[in-house]
Amino acid sequence: MKEWFSLDKLKSFGMNKLVICLLIGVFLLVLCIPTGSGKEKKEESIIGTNETESCTDMENLEQRLQEMLEKVQGVGRVEVMITTTGEYNQIEGVVVVAEGGNTPQVRQDIVETAQALFPIAAHKIKVCKMVE
Fold this sequence. Notes:
The protein contains 4 helices and 3 strands. By secondary structure, it is an alpha+beta fold. The chain has a 3-stranded mixed beta sheet with strand order 1-2-3, with helices on one face. The model is unreliable at about 40-50 (pLDDT under 50).
């Protein structure tokens, strides 16, 4: 170890090269130090925007599914709730409350419609009869 840092080796390496290496090292250290001030605020605002947009997107999906299901024979009035999970808003489940939700054929039509629109398994779709 002493051989690497001997005074003779440093002199032969050259003072200019040594100063350049030290400056490069300091520059790299400065780049690695997190500041945290502006970057965090920017990320927070982006996250907030994404949450708002995803909430609006889910409301739009729910509204569109509701409108579609109300056009199916025997379904009647409908209320829809879609739940998501993860960062990419993958659909986790769908709940449909429908006036005709007690009829087996209507239930099947609702489940098949939701499956046609969303990549979701049938057991993640719950159909209930609406209280009159």
